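Sat 14:20. Reprocessing the chain from the morning session after the first attempt stalled halfway. Input below, unchanged.
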Amino acid sequence: MTTGADRVARAAGCLKAAFAVAVGMNLAEAVWDPGGIAWRVARAAASVAFTLALAAYVVLRVLRWRRAPGERP
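Finished this time. Tokens:
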């Protein structure tokens, strides 16, 4: 069974991975000018993944903070 801290840590890992992908795509776009429908779809997918990972992380942190106010890290 996973604890709240485990879920937050997993969400943080997903957020780090999504951030790394987004930064990598921005660097690729700065060096090389990719185009086409595949690039647009990949950019949209990376944006959605980052947004969902960020929302999940924030929600889990808030829920953990509200459940145990005396155990704030």
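The two ends are 21 Å apart (CA to CA).
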